[in-house]
């Protein structure tokens, strides 16, 4: 070998040594992993010069590398690996056909169409997975267009999705390029403009909390007085302080607004869900809060039809609202009065009140008089917590118990009187080929149950349930005494042998 290499070097040539590659791991047998394993083996076949080896050796190496799964699958195919006509290509085609028949295109396409970018997933991983899912969908020439559409619909970045939609002639290559570029810009944003994201987060946090109704007044106070805020002096003297008679809703002390509250431990919170009631000391205006202002799409178990002045109207049951609200269209047909209250919705936002209407409301047999607030731009109607309770639409249940036992005897007394009889006589036909069976010794009954058995037999004789037999009979079966929980007994008959001789009747369905 050294002599050959030296001769090659002297001749100015290069001697290529054969590359030794480790074979891929054994195939796990799942159809989903077959394309990857096949591609990896193909690379191994080309890199290790296996393709230049005899075809029988290629077949053996292929099946050996694939593992025991290849032997199990090969049993289902009409292929003999020892046959000279069997080549690597014919084996590969057979295995491709085997795994393709196990794929359900409808399911694979459903997976593809439901794929969206996950919260912690990069856009590159999302695009790669779309390509993998598309391999099993048989999209044909539409493959690239469908992957492009899925990228536009499935990316988390709304701005990126809008930019992609605005491209008149968007291709898959362009969609991937723009997606990668958008993610790269997002990752480099803290480096280029480090203060912008922090400001945005703080802004979201500030507006995410409930604001006190006096927040705007406090901000006006602060704009007039630059010293107000972190400084101890707000710029006003005590005699002229606008907050001297106001009670803070955090610490319940007078003399300042909640916006300038500095203590670390607040008093017990007076908020109840999304509804806040304010006393007259806290505000010059009367305020009520609505915790849920949304459009009512469908009438469901959270809504009810109420008669308002004898006209049916759909209300949404809102236990978080302290007043009842009706839509703006109501103002066109009813006379309104001026509202003295200021309504606020989620996030402590002010709501525009057009006026109020006094209306009579009825649900089933309950009638109340309610003040309805007409809101601007409000298409749906809300029923307050108090009105829902008065009309019997909601009820506070402190104790949950199971359903009571139904009293069938009390509900259907005639069905439990006397002996039940068939209206039409019925005959049981026996198979004449079966020999009758008869017991010759009566079964023993426990001595304490003998009086109860005699009493029960006498009762059944009196009611006509049974009749005495005083002549020889071909069939005779023993009785079975079953004690009841109430202390009485039930007499049953062991008809096991007789049932074998009964001809079964056919009931067409």
From TrEMBL:
Disordered, as annotated region: 1-33, 208-227
Coiled coil: none
Domain of life: Eukaryota
Biased composition (Low complexity): 1-13
InterPro entries: DNA/RNA_pol_sf, Peptidase_aspartic_dom_sf, Retrovirus_Pol_polyprotein
Protein name, UniProt field: Uncharacterized protein
């Amino acid at each position: 070998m050294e002599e050959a290499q030296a001769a090659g070097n002297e001749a100015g040539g290069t001697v290529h040594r054969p590359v030794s590659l480790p074979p891929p791991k054994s195939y796990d047998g799942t159809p989903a992993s077959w394309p990857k394993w096949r591609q990896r083996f193909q690379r191994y076949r080309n890199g290790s010069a296996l393709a230049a080896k005899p075809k029988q050796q290629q077949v053996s190496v292929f099946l050996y590398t694939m593992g025991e799964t290849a032997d199990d699958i090969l049993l289902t195919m009409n292929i003999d690996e020892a046959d000279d006509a069997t080549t690597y290509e014919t084996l590969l085609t057979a295995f491709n056909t085997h795994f393709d028949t196990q794929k359900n295109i409808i399911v694979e396409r459903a997976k593809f169409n439901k794929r969206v970018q996950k919260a912690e997933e990069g856009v590159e991983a999302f695009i790669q997975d779309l390509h993998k899912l598309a391999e099993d969908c048989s999209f044909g020439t539409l493959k690239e267009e469908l992957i492009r559409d899925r990228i536009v619909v499935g990316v988390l970045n709304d701005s990126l999705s809008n930019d992609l939609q605005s491209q008149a002639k968007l291709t898959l290559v362009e969609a991937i390029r723009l997606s990668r570029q958008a993610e790269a810009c997002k990752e480099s944003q803290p480096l280029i403009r480090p203060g912008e994201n922090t400001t945005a987060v703080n802004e979201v946090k500030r507006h995410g909390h409930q604001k006190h109704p006096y927040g705007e007044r406090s901000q006006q106070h602060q704009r007039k007085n630059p010293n107000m805020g972190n400084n101890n002096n707000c710029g006003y003297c005590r005699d002229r302080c606008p907050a001297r008679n106001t009670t803070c809703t955090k610490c319940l002390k007078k003399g300042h607004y909640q916006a300038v509250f500095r203590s670390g431990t607040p008093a017990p919170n007076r908020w109840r869900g999304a509804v806040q009631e304010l006393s007259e000391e806290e505000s010059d205006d009367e305020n009520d809060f609505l915790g849920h202002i949304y459009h009512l799409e469908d009438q469901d178990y959270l809504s009810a039809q109420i008669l308002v002045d004898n006209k049916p109207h759909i209300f949404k049951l809102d236990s978080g609202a302290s007043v009842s609200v009706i839509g703006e269209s109501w103002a066109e047909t009813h006379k309104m009065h001026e509202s003295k209250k200021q309504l606020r919705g989620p996030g402590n936002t002010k709501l525009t009140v057009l006026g109020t209407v006094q209306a009579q409301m009825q649900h089933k047999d309950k009638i109340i008089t309610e003040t309805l607030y007409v809101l601007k731009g409000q298409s749906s109607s809300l029923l307050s917590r108090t009105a829902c309770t008065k009309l019997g639409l909601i009820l506070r249940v402190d104790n949950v118990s199971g359903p009571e036992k139904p009293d069938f005897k009390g509900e259907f007394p005639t069905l439990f009187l006397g002996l039940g009889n068939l209206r039409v006589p019925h005959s049981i036909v026996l198979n004449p080929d079966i020999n009758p069976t008869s017991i010759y010794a009566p079964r023993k009954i426990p001595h304490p149950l003998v009086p109860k058995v005699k009493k029960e037999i006498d009762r059944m004789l009196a009611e006509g349930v049974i009749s005495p037999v005083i002549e020889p009979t071909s069939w005779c079966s023993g009785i079975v005494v079953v004690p009841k929980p109430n202390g009485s007994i039930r007499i049953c008959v062991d008809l096991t042998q007789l049932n074998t001789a009964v001809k079964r009747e056919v009931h067409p369905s």
